[in-house]
Design a protein that fits this description.
Number of helices: 9
Helix content: 55-70%
Organism: Dovyalis caffra
Pfam family, one: AAA_lid_At3g28540
Structural class: mainly alpha
Radius of gyration: 27 Å
InterPro entries: At3g28540-like_C, Mitochondrial_chaperone_BCS1, P-loop_NTPase
Number of domains: 2
Distance between the termini: 64 Å
Strand content: under 5%
Protein name: AAA+ ATPase At3g28540-like C-terminal domain-containing protein
Order of helices and strands: HHHHHHHHH
């Protein structure tokens, strides 16, 4: 709610405020029953543990519970969900480490990262207009000399400039 514009949520704009939280194990059980017709499975314990350690929306969980291969292959769906939860957990850990490094970095390190001018940063990211033009010409089938470039099939048939 704190990310929404106050004008959007002022009185008279919304009749109901519904909080959509991350998926709990109880919500997962409902999803597993609806999508896979499972009341229990030996992988539920691992999923319960991972859901307690990471944040994943019910929609993301449901996406993993929809069979994409053989109909009724519950283990494949549950294994896919476990893999996604483990990846989300690892991503969250890496993000937290990165934020901690930024928070604890020295003022000199922060200054060094700000020292490069916007022009230098732009040069690092964007090639020059001349390089852009050359790249576009190559993508459109032209060589540096301005002639059309022959594709492999044309070369095989003996075509030339």
């Amino acid at each position: 709610m704190e990310k929404l514009d106050p004008a959007l949520i002022r009185k008279g704009r919304m009749d109901k405020h519904i909080e959509l939280s991350y998926c709990s194990f109880e919500a997962f059980q409902v999803l597993a029953k609806n999508y896979l017709r499972l009341e229990s499975h030996h992988l539920f314990a691992k999923i319960q543990e991972l859901l307690g350690e990471t944040k994943m929306t019910p929609a993301e969980v449901a996406e993993h519970l929809m069979p994409k291969t053989l109909p009724g292959d519950d283990k494949v769906c549950l294994d896919g969900l476990i893999a996604a939860l483990e990846k989300a957990k690892e991503d969250a850990r890496l993000k937290a480490e990165e934020e901690a490094k930024e928070k604890n970095s020295s003022p000199e390190e922060k200054a060094e990262s700000k020292d490069s001018s916007p022009e230098e940063k732009a040069k690092e990211k964007d090639p020059s207009p001349e390089e852009n033009a050359k790249e576009q010409a190559k993508e459109n089938g032209f060589c540096d000399n301005g002639h059309a470039e022959l594709n492999d099939k044309e070369k095989e048939k003996g075509f030339s400039h």
